[in-house]
Amino acid sequence: MNPPVVHLDSVGVTYQSRRLRDSGTIAAVSGVTLAIERGQTLGLVGESGSGKTTLGKLCLGMIRPTQGTVQLNGQPFPRHRRELKGRLAVVLQHPEWALNPRLRVGISVAEPLSIARSLPSGKVDATVEDMLSKVGLEPVLARRYPHELSGGQRQRLAIARALITHPQFVVFDEAVSALDVSIQSQVLNLIKDLQASEGFAALFISHDIAVTRYVAHTIGVMYQGELVEQAPASTFYLKPKHPYSRALRLTLAEEDRAAFTFKDTTGSESARGCLFSVRCPWAVDRCFADKPGLRDVEGSRSACHRAEEVGAA
Question: Is the pTM of this model over 0.70?
Answer without folding.
Answer: yes
